[in-house]
Amino acid sequence: MLKKKMLKALNKQINAEMYSSYLYLSMESYFQSVSLGGFAGWMRSQVQEELYHGMKFYDYVNERGGKVTLEAIDKPDADWKTPLEAFEHILEHEQMVTSLINSLMDLAAKEQDHATKIFLQWFVSEQVEEEASVGEVVDKLRLIQDNSSGLFFLDAELGKRTFTLPQKDD
Ligand code: FEO
User: Which of 60, 99, 149, 151 is 20 to 30 A removed from 69 (C-alpha atoms)?
Assistant: First the structure.
């Protein structure tokens, strides 16, 4: 059984993951509006990945006998001046999510909730990957600057990404 504080914090994280999904969906729409289909496709994969994260927390709360309580999802930003600005925004966002996961881990340690610590381990590693993949695109966009052929090349590269539902425990 989850302790009250832990349950509240995990419920809050479900909302944060759902907001992440919503933010990426808003970015997909932005990239579609500027005809960068590869970037938009990359965002769609990220939308699905964040939903998967949210559902992973949802299932865990249920598994531990807790009740999931859903809250309103904040309105995401809708426009960015450049692809670089959008990716800098999500890098900052992912760094914030990393700090949320770290705080959850601190709380689980404080509450001596060993099962939740083990559960959160997956997210600690996942955030390393998330920050690295977004950071790589930020670096490339900084190199490209205003070079449109560089941008089209990157658009094609990002468009290759697909989301496959991870196996349980992956
Ligand atoms: Fe669910 Fe991008 O962190």
Answer: 99
